[in-house]
Amino acid sequence: MKVKSLAKAYEGLKKVVAQKKAERDFAEYKKQDNRETDEYRRDMEKRISDLQQALKEALAASPSTPRSSVPESLSAEGPGNRTSYAFYGCGSPEHLLRNCPRKTLVEKKAIWEKHESPKADTFDH
What we know:
The protein is 59% helix and 0% strand. It is built from 3 helices and no strands. It folds into 2 domains: 1-66; 72-123, no CATH class. The longest helix is centred in the N-terminal third of the chain and has 60 residues, at 2-61.
């Protein structure tokens, strides 16, 4: 009977020791996680600050008028411009041929080749 109670007490102590060890391990893990989180947060704050500064400098250096994606001399409305369809495959001045949502790569390539563009080989993938 005494052996059973000693064995029971021993098992109870093992559980308490295991629980205390788990609590210490968790506390250490939490400290490490907090350090890593703080380090990550500081790194992200620095990156954001750097990007904000770069944006501020870029805005200060750029003209106030918005930039056009295609020079006016190459627009579809230009008189006798034979590359206009190469730039606007569907006729929209909103995007270049390479970004046209209405044309497939095969159709884009055909337009480039039809207008004998030197960049016709850029669609060969």
